[in-house]
Design goal:
Blueprint (H helix, E strand, L loop, with lengths): L5 H18 L12 E2 L12 E6 L3 H11 L6 E5 L4 H4 L8 E7 L3 E9 L16 E3 L2 E3 L1 E9 L2 H28 L3
Helix pairs in contact: 1-4
């Protein structure tokens, strides 16, 4: 069991580390290398924190690019079903894959990829009608990004509520085992 003298010191150290993490600005997204930024409606100012790119990069190349440029001490990488893109972006969003990079308590980056040749919702013989063309060039895929940030007060509030809950659970757990004679 942790002594009453050591507990405040541990709490101060944990708070200092997490407050530093919460105060560090999130990474600035770089344009997708070797791609053309879309200026189409819905890919620019119509949707807050959204941008899109036409590219010939593979899914692995796109994910690795953003994984290397969207770094943080805690980075959670999630793979979502493509149908979720209709909720996160818009109900007409075409999607082949949807992945998320989450910086807990800070923000999330959603990466929606649409590869017309792999469109699971279109029969293979009819996929050619979905071929991606932009500014006179053909592309293998369209990548749409959405950042969902949190403000500093929300980050701090969420952190301290979580911390209070964890401390409460810790003390309840500790008291339970003391009462059982362990």
């Amino acid at each position: 069991m942790i002594s009453k003298k050591i507990f405040p010191i541990i709490l101060v150290i944990i708070n200092a580390v997490f407050l530093t993490y919460l105060l560090i600005p999130t990474p600035t997204l770089k344009p997708l290398i070797g791609s053309i930024k879309s200026q189409e409606p819905g890919d620019t100012v119509q949707m807050k924190n959204v941008s899109a790119y036409y590219t010939n990069l593979s899914r692995t190349e796109v994910i690795n690019f953003y994984k290397s440029s969207y770094v943080g001490p805690i980075l959670i990488h999630l793979n979502h079903p493509p149908e979720l893109s209709k909720t996160i972006f818009r109900d007409t969003m075409q999607s082949y894959y949807l992945e998320e990079f989450s910086l807990p308590f800070k923000e999330s980056l959603y990466i929606n990829g649409y590869e017309w040749e792999n469109d699971v919702f279109t029969n293979p013989e009819k996929r050619i009608k979905n071929k991606l063309s932009y500014e006179g060039k053909e592309f293998r895929s369209k990548i749409t990004l959405k950042i969902i940030p949190t403000s500093l007060p929300v980050r701090l509030f969420a952190f301290f509520i979580t911390e209070i809950a964890l401390i409460t659970v810790f003390f309840i757990y500790q008291k339970f085992f003391k009462n059982r004679g362990h």
